[in-house]
Amino acid sequence: MDDENVIRVEVRGHETAAVAAAERIAELFLSSGAGRPQRTPGIEAVVVVVHADVGRGPGEGGYTEPDEDGPDRPSVGNARHVLRLP
């Protein structure tokens, strides 16, 4: 991933809170969507990863206002391709 506008956000915490936080981040930006919780044996906390393009504005298919809805809102499936993620 060589795009300077794409960041990787790792959310650590109890599963319910970590997933909820990652989903909120994923809704705000053109993103990969929240990944599956990753667990480490013996550690209670999980890690949920989101890749987000923070360089695009709302008119460029990037972030959206939380209450914004409609056909122009980017979908996760399209975002993974645009972000060049597997």
How does this structure look, described?
The protein is α+β, with helices and mostly antiparallel strands and 86 residues long. Helices cover 24% and strands 23% of the residues. The chain has two helices and four strands, in the order E-H-E-E-E-H. The chain has helices spanning 15-28, 76-82, and strands at residues 6-13, 30-31, 38-39, 46-53. Strands 1, 2, 3 and 4 form a four-stranded antiparallel sheet that branches. The longest helix has 14 residues, at 15-28. The termini are close together. Mean pLDDT is 77; it is low at 73-78.
What are the defining features of this structure?
single chain; 86 residues; alpha+beta; 23% strand; elongated
Residue share in helices?
Answer: 10-25%
Q: Termini distance?
A: 10 Å
Average pLDDT rating: 77
In the predicted model, the low-confidence regions spanning at least 5 consecutive residues are 73-78
Number of helices: 2
Q: Name the shape in a single word.
A: elongated
Strand content: 15-25%
Our Rg estimate from Cα atoms comes to 13 Å
Class by SSE composition: alpha+beta
Total strands? 4
Largest sheet: 4 strands, antiparallel
- The H-and-E topology, N to C, reads as EHEEEH
Short description:
The protein is of the alpha+beta class. Helices cover 24% and strands 23% of the residues.
SSE blueprint and pairings:
Blueprint: E1 6-13, H1 15-28, E2 30-31, E3 38-39, E4 46-53, H2 76-82
Antiparallel strand pairs: 1-4, 2-4, 3-4
